[in-house]
Design a protein that fits this description.
Layout (H helix, E strand, L loop, with lengths): L1 H14 L3 H4 L5 H14 L1 H4 L22 H10 L13 H13 L13 H9 L24 H4 L2 H9 L11 E6 L4 E9 L3 E6 L4 E5 L3 E6 L14 H13 L4
Antiparallel strand pairs: 1-2, 1-5, 2-3, 3-4
Bound molecules: heme C (HEC) (2 copies).
Length: 253
């Protein structure tokens, strides 16, 4: 397997694989978030065009030692010892975004805005979007839906955008709602927190923590679909962009 991979890679290198085929493709929202982070933290040394540091041209993807995305991850997270290239403490989605931008600096289009203003996004979250009706942020709000306090540190912009536009298509096993029926016929629905072979713990609709022994249940299973509405048509593009900026600003307390 390893050998085969090596041979394929070697074949590519000999044949001179086109850059577009070697590089992973990144989503627009991730590239734009990366552009913002780059402007804030990298232009100081590398410049807006990415070619200020001698021997490194970020826009052209000419580096001194890195080739792959993983190597770039390493360089950015660890820095280059003995040089001005310091290490950066990015959360995984931020690192993905910065690399997405480096890989697309050349064709970056700053006119489209998929990521807006976090302060305005908070207004959408608590107001028109009614997100706060289900989601908890920094200790405020209900527990019936996943707590979003650190969502900006664990999900990429593109993943967040997709959930908001079409939550049905993005369900994560960890967040699923479950329905249990006890031996005496009581129906309990709620959000699953934990599950093992014998028991399940959930937050029920009255926000109580419930632990159930599966052997004592008449019926137990995942609820199909989600209670989260799809916002693709409910929010204007700029509202969506602001909301996204707000979610990305949530990185835990
Ligand atoms: C304080 C100045 C400084 C800042 C800020 C800085 N860099 Fe660098 N960077 C450098 C220098 C200097 C080098 C060249 C290091 C060397 O000589 O190998 C470098 C090299 C690099 C390289 C090339 C690594 C390689 O394999 O050759 C990458 C990629 C890079 N920087 C990305 C970034 C990103 C992304 C940011 C922002 C998050 C950033 N840098 C912020 C100074 C900086
Ligand atoms: C009626 C309740 C409800 C409303 C209103 C709601 N959500 Fe959700 N949301 C959920 C539930 C439940 C889930 C978990 C998915 C599932 O059902 O399995 C979820 C999942 C999510 C996730 C994915 C979390 C993860 O771990 O990746 C994000 C992000 C999210 N919602 C953001 C929002 C935003 C932003 C709004 C407002 C525009 C919103 N939600 C409105 C109920 C809601």
């Amino acid at each position: 397997m390893q050998l085969r991979r090596f041979l394929i890679l070697a074949g590519w290198l000999v044949a001179g694989a086109p850059a577009s085929l070697m590089a992973q493709t990144y989503a627009q929202a991730d590239i734009q978030y990366g552009a913002r982070l780059y402007a804030e933290q990298c232009t100081l040394c590398h410049g807006a065009t990415g070619d200020v540091v001698a021997g490194v041209d970020l826009r052209a993807n000419r580096f001194k030692r890195s080739t792959t995305d993983n190597e770039l991850r390493n360089v950015i997270s660890n820095g280059v010892p003995g040089t001005a290239m310091v290490s950066f403490k990015f959360a995984p989605p931020e690192l993905t975004a910065v690399i997405a931008y480096l890989r697309n600096m050349r064709d970056f289009d700053s006119k489209t805005t998929l990521i807006g203003d976090p302060a305005r996004g908070r207004v959408v979250f608590e107001g028109k979007g009614e997100c706060a009706r289900c989601h908890r942020v920094n200790g405020k709000g209900p527990r019936v839906a996943p707590d979003l306090s650190d969502i900006g540190a664990i999900r990429t912009p593109d993943a967040l955008r997709r959930v908001i536009v079409d939550p049905e298509a993005q369900l994560r096993p960890a967040n699923r709602s479950v329905r249990a029926v006890t031996q005496d016929g009581k129906v309990i629905t709620g959000r699953r927190l934990n599950e093992d072979t014998y028991t399940v713990q959930l937050i029920d609709e009255q926000e109580r923590l419930v632990s159930l022994v599966k052997a004592n249940l008449r019926d137990y299973g995942l609820i199909k679909g989600t209670s989260m509405p799809a916002y693709g048509d409910k929010l204007a593009p700029d509202e969506l962009a602001d909301l996204l900026a707000y979610l990305l600003s949530l990185k835990g307390l």
